[in-house]
């Protein structure tokens, strides 16, 4: 694979990356030089399409998972953490949107039948689901840059995500949400519980800080400008 990348990128003038870790791999493997690399904050997020919406003040904490339901997204650890949370905080809501791999069909059905989760399938109006949530959860193993986190944060929602590149850039730990260890059900459970125990005011403050973080660092318009300016240098 390294050889094929070297051949494919031999004559290019710039290679764009969505996070610094991916760039470092390419440079360390000698695929490209440092000078040919440019790291962007993913593709950014459209702040108009995903406007800030005040977090709803309701008695039950509501979490939302947005993405394909597969092991690489950390759903195994999430399901395990949810089972534990629901026994302690039975009114907590866990909503899932997105497609799933066939081997999770039975698990999803079982989790729904127990009242642990609500699975909504693939949807077009993701903004409606974000609006009804307090926190977006993504305990993924690998990401380029998670659009689900950026979109949730843009709408003023707190985030709980894995402490990996592609996720952690979207989160200011303990300010806009919490970072958990990847592939660690206990760490994820502790983050979920910590968020549940926050007051509504604190949850709202996290959401507002999330929106500000997106405005300052992930505005799609600014990332497009950076991309074009970098291309003009060649």
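Sequence proposed for the structure above (234 residues):
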């Amino acid at each position: 694979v390294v050889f094929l990348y070297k051949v494919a990128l031999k004559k290019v003038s710039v290679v764009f990356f969505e996070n610094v870790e991916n760039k470092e791999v390419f440079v360390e493997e000698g695929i490209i030089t440092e000078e040919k690399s440019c790291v962007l904050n993913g593709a950014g997020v459209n702040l108009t399409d995903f406007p800030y919406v005040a977090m709803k003040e309701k008695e039950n904490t509501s979490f939302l998972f947005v993405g394909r339901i597969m092991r690489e997204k950390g759903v195994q650890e999430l399901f395990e953490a949810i089972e534990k949370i629901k026994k302690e905080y039975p009114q907590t809501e866990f909503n899932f949107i997105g497609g799933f791999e066939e081997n999770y069909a039975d698990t999803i059905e079982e989790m729904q039948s127990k009242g642990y989760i609500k699975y909504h399938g693939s949807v077009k109006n993701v903004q409606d689901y974000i609006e009804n949530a307090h926190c977006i959860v993504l305990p993924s193993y690998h990401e380029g840059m998670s659009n689900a986190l950026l979109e949730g944060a843009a709408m003023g929602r707190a985030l709980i995500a894995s402490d990996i590149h592609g996720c952690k850039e979207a989160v200011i730990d303990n300010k806009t949400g919490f970072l958990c260890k990847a592939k660690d059900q206990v760490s994820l459970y502790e983050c979920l519980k910590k968020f549940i125990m926050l007051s509504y005011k604190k949850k709202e403050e996290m959401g507002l800080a999330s929106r500000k973080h997106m405005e300052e660092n992930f505005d799609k318009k600014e990332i497009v400008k950076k991309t074009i300016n970098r291309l003009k240098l060649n």
